[in-house]
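Narrative of activities, Objective 1.

The group set out to show that a structural description can be obtained from nothing but a protein's sequence at a throughput compatible with the screening campaign. Below is one input-output pair from the validation batch, recorded exactly as produced.
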Amino acid sequence: ILAAGSLPALIFGAPVPSLLSRNVAVADVQSLQTRSSSSYTLFGGDGTTTAGWPSINDWVATYDEMFAANKATMSASCTNFGFENDSDDEINDIKNAIQSVSASSGVDARFILAIVMQESTGCVRVGGTNNGVNNPGLMQSHNGKGSCNTGTPLSPCPSSEITQMIEDGTTGTADGDGLKQLIAQAIAKYGADGA
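Output recorded for this entry:
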């Protein structure tokens, strides 16, 4: 399982201060290890293979494999927020939305899923944050439209809202970039090999 200290660190491979790695809770590491034979690794450095990062060929082989490794976590993901957990249908809607948006945007479905797990642990009813900018939904997008919790959690969360959350975070919104734009910026700045 690949992890970075923040979205920019994940995208740009920016150095992660060692202070962040000391804050990883033992319980979190154990829960990650129990759902997969992989171990949780925090990467720092510049994001290159010479700095110890895995090459794309060493990533989880398939989206289906990665999704299966995270499904149990998604099924209990809303407990931490005090909301009803995702249903099997909602989890299936997340899977389908990621595949659909990946196909239309060109952003690797595994990367989209990694951000979903980082930002919301896959809880479709996750609340948003607002420190001057509203960040709702599965990917905590920049002023996104998609959400199943604008103050009152929706249950069930409609598949159209789940798809909107994935679109907002992947292809961006009128107010802010999504993964597609951030990847393009990284490639423009560092080249395809350095992004």
